[in-house]
Amino acid sequence: MSHGYESGRLDLPFVGIATFGKSPICADWGALDADVAILGAPFDMGTQWRAGARFGPRAVREASTLFSFGHAGAYDHEDDATYMQGVRMVDMGDADIVHTDTETSHANIEAGVRAALAAGALPVVIGGDHSVNIPCIRAFAGRGPLHVVQIDAHLDFVDERHGVRHGHGNPMRRAAEQAHVSGLTQLGIRNVSSTAKEGYDDARAMGSDILSVRQVRRLGVEAVLARIPEGVDLYLTIDIDGFDPSIAPGTGTPSHGGLLYYEGLELLAGLARRGRVVGVDLVEVAPDYDRTGTTAILAAQLLLNLVGRAMHAKR
User: Fold this and answer.
1) Residue 296 above 60 pLDDT?
2) Domains along the chain?
3) pLDDT tens-digit map of 231-257
4) CA dist 228 to 148, 239, 276, Å?
5) DSSP string over the chain
6) Scanning 2, 49, 119, 271, which has its CA 20 to 30 A from the CA of 248?
7) Contact 36, 46 (CB under 8 A)
8) Are 150 and 186 in contact (CB under 8 A)?
């Protein structure tokens, strides 16, 4: 008996080319025509400990094929909403990375984000280490104001260390310096961070609101969201080490005591309702430290849920 599913290809997750969510490839960045544009930023030369996030985009793309729902969208029975329905998503491939050359590599990432923005698409960047956020934020110059929301174990607010200003300990400091960034909310920050006390003092002086995982839990998701300006343009930067290493071991600097999946998802879903999500990066997935692939699956699941909710709120 036919149920109408017999025409065309079944296209199971393990079949075909692993673009993000099995979306079409758009290699010509001047001809982008999409609502969402995925860009890989496989740069990990900003790391201070374990490298390997250069393989993050590839791993997250492969994991995302598990959540590629074809044309029917993704129905969520708890929300009674179908996400990703009619959303035109393309995969731009990766920005070109020049080994040992941070500035050129970052400039290439910035060019990709600018191309997505010029096409009116939501740029979603998969890192790479957290330094790739620096060119992402730079690409929004002239488009602000942006409120940056960071999910992370580490504050990443180092100004300069031994001349290094564009490593993965610097991005939130560089963001706060930008004229088009109106403020920062930094969530999940915990344990001994890579940022010294002076960095925390500087962050607060420059307008940052900093909450640890324990503080987020004590307040609850709605109270946390209420601290974030409403109806503004939001840029979301998600370091996978913001999540607990029990569910995200595949990262360079894991930190125990992290967020769990639904805490993160509810924060992201709430942000999509509270403001306009205009840019996203997800960084620090280093798949070689996780032989089960759980970390990449978490990253893909978070991104597709976030994109679905951002597009749903926009409509």
Assistant:
1) yes
2) 20-314 (3.40.800.10)
3) 999 999 999 999 999 999 999 999 999
4) 10, 19, 12
5) ---S--SS----TTSS---GGGPPB---GGG---SEEEEEE---TT-SS---GGGHHHHHHHHHGGG--TTS-EEETTTTEEESTT--EEEEEE----TT-HHHHHHHHHHHHHHHHHTTPEEEEEESSGGGHHHHHHTTTTS--EEEEEE-SS------BTTB-SSTTSHHHHHHHSTTEEEEEEES--SS-SS-HHHHHHHHHTTEEEE-HHHHHHH-HHHHHHTSPSSSEEEEEEEGGGB-TTT---SSS--SS-B-HHHHHHHHHHHHHHSEEEEEEEE---GGG-TT-HHHHHHHHHHHHHHHHHHHHH-
6) 271
7) no
8) yes
Place of tokens 């998701």: 221
In the chain, what's the furthest Cα-to-Cα distance?
70
